[in-house]
Amino acid sequence: MKKILGYAAIAGFIALGASCTQEKKLPIYGDREAKITKDANGNEKIDTVYKTIPNFKFLNQDSIEVTQDAFKNKVYVADFFFTSCSTICPIMHRNMKTIFDKYKDNRDVMFLSHTIDFKYDKPSVLKKYAQKLGADVPQWQFLYGSKEEVYKLAEKDYLVAVQEDSSATDGYIHQGWLVLIDKHKRIRGAYDGTKTEEVEKLKTDMDILLAEKD
Amino acid sequence: MRKIIVYSLFFGAIAIAINACQSASEIEMAKYMSNGKDIYQARCQNCHGENGEGLGELAPPLTDTIFLKSNKQKLACYIKNGVNEPMQIHGKTYQEKMPAFKDLHDIDIAQVTVYITNSFGNRHGMYTYEQVANDLKSCN
């Protein structure tokens, strides 16, 4: 009996060890659909189709048109902000800058900040802001676009609430999420950019995502 | 002998009085520091940083003790009315808009000013709300 217990314990430890070496995976967020396809033999099979960030076309801090091609095969962190925001944006970007500093030399990683201030944050304003933040490099794109397009992208695709509101301190209200997007344009995480613990979690998750085999 | 007792009582009383005064102002200072820290964390830290280090060139650091000392009379105006003018801090020129904090009362401004001018390597002592009221009269 004792022997059996001993064996069971050993087997258990082995199983435990195996599960530890298994690849860690981040969840995939957003609506999904089941799509029925046929394989070569005509057998039907079901594929899950995940929500992806649709294509876009905006001007960046150098007034150059940028589309999703710039983020092709990149893992990236996206957020919504505006340059004259005096409340949560400075904290979000202080924190985002620490992520940027960590992955500065990693060519698989990019950063994307969409301004929601379509009235004032023209590319030249974004340029100055990026320079003063110390992040005016191609790896970090600051994008300007029309209210309609940017707000729709925020709410429908990145799932970040943004709104014009004349009663708010700086004229807009928005959520401070930093959204993690994978190489297939899927949402893999959203972290409160005003909280250092969550930003640290993003960094850990970024490493997991970068190690993921596609 | 009686004389000695009277004298020692007298000096003793003076010593206690001085001591009490000192600790009263120390207590007042500690109160300003702790309330000032709360205001700083809620309203200023997002831009100026946990350790007064600033944020790139978007917000200057609060560690240039000479700047803070020589502009002490203007700090209340900066906080109450906001400011947007070139400033030389640690030998570097900063210019960006700091928002106005209209809702802060003189006592809040005094407390947060005491906090920043006695933290981050600064040591400029007390600054009362009466001084704030006075300094606010000469804002431009």
TrEMBL record, chain A:
It comes from the Bacteria. CDD domains: SCO. InterPro entries: SCO1/SenC, Thioredoxin-like_sf, Thioredoxin_domain. Keywords: Copper. PROSITE patterns: PROKAR_LIPOPROTEIN, THIOREDOXIN_2. The keyword Amino-acid biosynthesis does not apply. Residues 47-211 form the Thioredoxin domain. Pfam families: SCO1-SenC (PF02630). Belongs to the SCO1/2 family. This is SCO family protein. It comes from Pedobacter ureilyticus.
From TrEMBL, chain B:
Residues 31-120 form the Cytochrome c domain. InterPro entries: Cyt_c-like_dom (IPR009056), Cyt_c-like_dom_sf (IPR036909), Cytochrome_c-type_DH (IPR051459). Gene3D superfamilies: Cytochrome c-like domain (1.10.760.10). Coiled coil: none annotated. SUPFAM superfamilies: Cytochrome c. The keyword Cell membrane does not apply. This is C-type cytochrome. It comes from Pedobacter ureilyticus.
